[in-house]
Amino acid sequence: MMFHFGNVAVALFVLPACPGVHGFQLGSRMGAATYSQKNGKLFVSSVTVEGDSGVASEGSSGTPPDMKAFASGYKTAFQEVPFNLCKPSSGEVPADLVGTYFRCGPAMFSAGSVPPPSNSAVKPKTTPVPDGQDPDRMVKHPFEGDGAVLGVTFHGDGTATSRFRYVRTNTFTMERKKGQKLYSGMESTREASAGVGNDFPVPLFRHHLQPGLNKKRKNTSNTRVIYWAKKLLTLWEGGLPYKLDALALSTEGRSQLGGILKQVDPFGAKGAYDSVKDRMLFYSNRQDSGSSELVVYEFNSKFRLVRENEGKREAKLPGLALLSDFAVTDNYSIFVQPPVTVNGLQFMMSKEPTKTLTLEKGASLLHLIPRVDSSKNGGEVKSIEIPFDGDVEADLQFINAYEDDSGSTVVLDVIRSAGGGKNAGSWPWATSLSDYSSSSSKKSLWRYTINVSSGNVSKECISDLQCSFGVINPNVSAQNHQYIYTAVGSMGSNVAPPQGLAKFDCKTKTSQVWLPKEYEFCGEPMYAPRKKTEETSKSDVNEDDGYILSVLYNGKSGESELVVLSAKDLKAGPMTRIPLGLGIPHGLHGCFNPDQETGWTADEIERRAKLADKMEKRGNMWNEVKSDFSGLGLRLDDFDEYFGDLL
Fold first, then answer.
1. pLDDT tens digit string along 53-93?
2. What ranges in 242-369 are assigned the alpha helix state H?
3. Three-state SS for 327?
């Protein structure tokens, strides 16, 4: 049905939600829309258009994404940016946006593409070549690319400072010196048709199953960056985190978190924040063919283990637990373990994921692991089967979880994957929508409600839009939240790459969607609160009274910019666009720290960047910093632990 108001046409139409349930849906292209439910069905309530748009079919935007433009976002970043003073190309940087945004992701798809310093004693055998020119140097899946971190600091004066550097992992440094690919342990897995195991762009199978430090398990440190207690860490599932200097983004080395971890310990790629207790939780998952040993660590605001139960909770899980995400509530850490069978012979012989593991069609296990200060369930793990509805709960992207007032019910919001087909193919991977659809799973927004005492689990599809990278305002993490922000595809419920941004109101059942041009692609949205003032400190601040940040890649120009949107009025689109001075490959997960301690001046960042470059040019020592000073009996982390406030 079409209504005309002057020269503006507004379409009113009904879109289908997830099968059997009702949720939010998408409708317009190159613009924005607001949606609401009426009598159990979804209606468009308002439309804002930025350019030509139309609705071709239910759940479709009408204008497919430019997939060649999208594929160009998987291009190796051959240059780093140690320091760049940025000014907006449109709009103004809000004066109350102060702090630093960090984002991590794979950025090197042709191994050894950043040569060592010119004065290095070791010279690479080959020089960097364009992506695709030497197939032997190309990774088989974008997730295998070496990690790099983007940092953008907002100074509160209308300017921002950006920098972009690779994480100097041990494997990055070795391939950098040789100028060739040295790690191929996951290639047979990536070349197989493993369904969601090789999901695009982030697979269920994250690493080789050979434990410890070895050439088969390449720690790319490319999945997530976390700033906590004045420490900047990059994470990758299955290996130690790396510690970076937050100003220059220079790598200080592998971190054992002050001696808590051993060098061979695996470490999870997620940190879950408890906003009530002001704690950060991490996990370590040691997998074996018959069982898995999970340890959940709780750190206080000084990055020290909390006192209760020595700051950790250990749990033994049945079978080989494929875990890559989790959430926390007041009393629990929550994990979901998909049903996997293990080929015992292959586990002993090869430990290659696709040869060793089979994802079964069946019920997944939801594990409620009591927090270190909780006496729930006598401190024992409570495992609950999630009813199987035809799609396996595998590789869920956790957004947030909370308990009701009585503590008897847990609510968990996630992005759920369904399907998944062939492998991603060869670089540049998804150059057509059909290729992308066949290698990427359908992802939608779901809510799980768990009755802790009875073990009953109910599911509700919040939105059938193709969603990725769900986040909330971290100030309500582990609490009842109202708003969820995600990246969305432009083809409604059909599989398409992340492109626009969406806001879902879990109370009013309405949503807002903003879509850029067909050759522009947003990554993960990140909530950034307004700078606190004397007035806002005394009054209650609405949950959406802040900004949404996202890196937007322009496939036509090959460059990236940071877009700033109002979290309250997301459908209005970017209020500010900040060119970053280079094309940054499609990334993964990040964080925003609003504290004054990360509102460094441009001069401070530039001085630290020059020092980092100078240190690297002195030779190989800086690149190969270990997390220990054996002669002194101290680890690098110990200096921060004991002298951090003085340094």
1. 332 223 345 689 999 999 999 999 999 999 999 999 999 99
2. 344-349, 353-356
3. strand
Alpha helices per DSSP H over 470-593 = 534-538
Give the separation between CA 282 and CA 298, rounded to whole angstroms: 7
Q: pLDDT digits over 102-133, tens only?
A: 999 999 999 999 988 877 778 888 899 999 99
299-337: per-residue pLDDT in tens? 999 999 999 999 999 999 999 999 999 999 999 999 999
121: left (phi > 0), else alpha (psi -120 to 50), else beta? alpha
* pLDDT above 90: percentage of residues in the chain: 77
Using left for φ > 0, alpha for ψ between -120 and 50, and beta otherwise, residue 637 falls in alpha
Residue 460 has pLDDT above 90, yes or no: yes
In the structure encoding, which two tokens stand for residue 133, read together? 């020119």
| CA 411 – CA 452 distance, rounded (Å) | 10
Cα(279)–Cα(300) distance, integer angstroms: 5
Give the residue carrying structure tokens 């048709």: 193
Terminal-residue alpha carbon distance, the chain? 66
Q: How many other C-beta atoms lie within 10 A of the C-beta of residue 589?
A: 24
Alpha carbon distance 118, 318 (integer Å): 51
Distance CA 14, CA 568 (A): 25
Q: Where are the beta strands (DSSP E) in 490-558?
A: 500-505, 510-514, 520-522, 526-529, 546-554
Length of the chain: 647
Q: Name residues whose C-beta falls within 8 Å of residue 530's C-beta, 6 or more positions apart in sequence.
A: 94, 96, 97, 536, 541, 545, 546, 547
319 within 8 A of 376, measured Cβ to Cβ: no
Report DSSP state, residue 383.
E
